């Protein structure tokens, strides 16, 4: 290897440590937020699919519901603020995923089922199926479920009315 280059294995370790650093910064930011809001919650960090994943969990989920908001709107805003906090510290754009009270995990399961159901409908009718508008996170989960069912899908429309269309094979 030439000077200044790293091996693929070293790059993998560098990426993992960078993502772990993102998780640490995000956890510190979120702990401060919980303190300011006087909310109880434990923070769990992980690395999933090449991105840092941070979850706030609590024994009494009612408190955390305030941080999720209607249809996850507050959660989305907090995720963006957390990404900005990471960016401020590292100088790098973050793709960090934030979950609060298991909201995203539950939503991911529901969306995967929706994608599979839409794929089944397309297989039986042969006609494309258009789904309701979704966030980028929601569309990604549906696209993955449709691909797992052996079909293809596309996103159409403009934000915030962008939606998934499931297409015949």
Would you mind describing this structure in some detail?
The chain is of the alpha+beta class. The chain folds into 2 domains: about 10-100, GMP Synthetase, Chain A, domain 3 (2-Layer Sandwich), CATH 3.30.300; about 105-165, Ribosomal Protein S8, Chain: A, domain 1. Helices cover about 55% and strands about 20% of the residues. The chain has 5 helices and 6 strands. The chain has helices at about 10-35, 60-70, 75-90, 105-125, 135-150, and strands spanning about 40-50, 50-55, 95-100, 130, 150-155, 165. The strands form 2 sheets. A 3-stranded mixed beta sheet has the order 1-2-3, sandwiched between helices. Strands 4-6-5 form a 3-stranded antiparallel beta sheet.
Strand order of the largest sheet: 1-2-3
Instruction: Report the mean per-residue pLDDT as an integer.
Output: 90
CATH architecture of the largest domain: 2-Layer Sandwich
Query: Got a strand count?
Result: 6
Radius of gyration: 19 Å
Contiguous uncertain segments of 5+ residues: 1-9
According to CATH, the fold-level topology of the largest domain is: GMP Synthetase, Chain A, domain 3
Task: Give the biggest beta sheet.
Answer: 3 strands, mixed
> Which percent range describes the beta-strand content?
15-25%
> Helices and strands: which structural class?
alpha+beta
Q: CATH top level of the largest domain? A: Alpha Beta
Domains (count): 2
Topology order in helix (H) and strand (E) letters: HEEHHEHEHEE
Helix content bin? 40-55%
The termini sit apart by 45 Å
- At the fourth level of CATH, the homologous superfamily of the largest domain is K homology (KH) domain
What does the overall shape look like?
globular
Query: If helices are DSSP runs of H or I spanning 4 or more residues, what is the number of helices?
Result: 5
């Amino acid at each position: 290897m030439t000077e200044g280059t790293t091996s693929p294995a070293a790059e993998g370790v560098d990426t993992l440590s960078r993502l772990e650093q993102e998780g640490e910064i995000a956890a510190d930011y979120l702990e401060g937020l919980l303190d300011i809001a006087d909310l109880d919650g434990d923070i769990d960090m992980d690395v999933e699919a090449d991105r840092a994943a941070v979850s706030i969990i609590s024994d009494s989920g009612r408190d955390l519901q305030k941080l999720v908001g209607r249809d996850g709107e507050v959660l989305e805003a907090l995720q963006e603020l957390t990404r900005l906090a990471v960016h401020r510290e590292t100088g790098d754009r973050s793709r960090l995923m934030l979950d609060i009270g298991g909201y995203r995990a539950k939503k991911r399961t529901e969306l995967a089922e929706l994608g599979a159901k839409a794929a089944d409908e397309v297989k039986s009718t042969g006609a494309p199926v258009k789904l309701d508008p979704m966030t980028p996170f929601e569309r990604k989960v549906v696209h993955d479920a449709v691909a797992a069912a052996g079909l293809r899908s596309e996103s159409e429309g403009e934000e915030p009315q962008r939606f998934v269309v499931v297409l015949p094979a």
